[in-house]
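Q: Here's a chain of 387 amino acids. Please give me its 3D structure as tokens.
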Amino acid sequence: MSAVAIKAWCPGALRPMQSGDGLVVRVRPHGGRLDAKQAAGIADLAGQYGNGLIDLTSRANLQIRGVGDHGYPPLIDGLARLGLLDPDPETEARRNVLVTPFWSAGDDTSSLAAELELGLASTPLDLPTKFGFAIDDGSERTLAGASADVRIERDGAGGLMVRADGAKLGRAVTRGEAVPVALALAEWFVTSGGGESERRRMAAHIAEGASLPKTLRGDAKPARQSAEPAPGLCPPGAMVGVAFGQVPHLTLGHLATHAQAIRLTPWRMLLVEGMREMLCGADLITRADDPVLRVIACSGAPRCGEAHADTRALASALAPHIPADARLHVSGCAKGCAHSGSADITLVATREGFDVVRGGSTRDMPVMHGLSGTAIVANPSMLMGGR
């Protein structure tokens, strides 16, 4: 390797991560949104300095893959010209903000995101790298299933509230109080011992007995959770998916030519602003019943050096056999990078073959061990058991 510092953390732009296909450079769009120029610029940079593949992550970020050591400096220069870099790696790591894509011009979402990003840039808090915030302030919660530690939401009456992940209730706040209270929750997490482990999360901290102070507790009940979105038209534009959350750079460039802007989502889909009809393209998922949407798969081998198998080839073969109301997660190793939560079926690649977990995550006990991909494809019904 060259002078680029590579470690096994969640990647950023200023702290890339080495993978099996080169450096992974993560771009965190401000407010979860790219204007058309930024989207087109990322597409060009990925084609010029990467391998042309761009990941959509569960934190609504983009990852440019396959970047070589010599291509990294000009790539970073290009991202800086597009206004997509933070001043330093520490600020970048703290700016872990997930924003609902279903906002409207003039509502609180964009201003809350901008204020929270500014607050995080100026805080000295040493938060764990996966610690994150969600701004989910629509009349229904769309981000309830997405990973976040501090949540700015609406209550059943439409008022703003701030809630620690893992707590059933939150504190009702005014618009001016929302961001300060969210930052205070993060500070409490650190000072109460939650930040002692790099992988520590808010929900686990609370579940293990940490008690919120009175100033951060409340009795506000969050608004109801909406169904997980699917491809289709919606008020802001057109929602489109890509297989396994990986978009070719030419496809992103094509979307940029049709978009007012592109909003990132945690569902590995893109919301193309201003579209009033669905876009077509071989690399786009435009139907809500597409079987590929039932399957989550990480990069897998050979793209990831940690993976024990080609996850996406297996996921593609199994997708048509997964029931419409079920979810399959195929993970190249036990880390579960593509999906940290539960799935109806989770396949975990090991040196001995695939382990099968039912109704759990990569961290749960398998019901079968060491199956070959060939055997699974030949008899996919074995995965579902008695379901």
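Q: Can you summarize the key feature?
A: The first strand starts at residue 17 and ends at 19.
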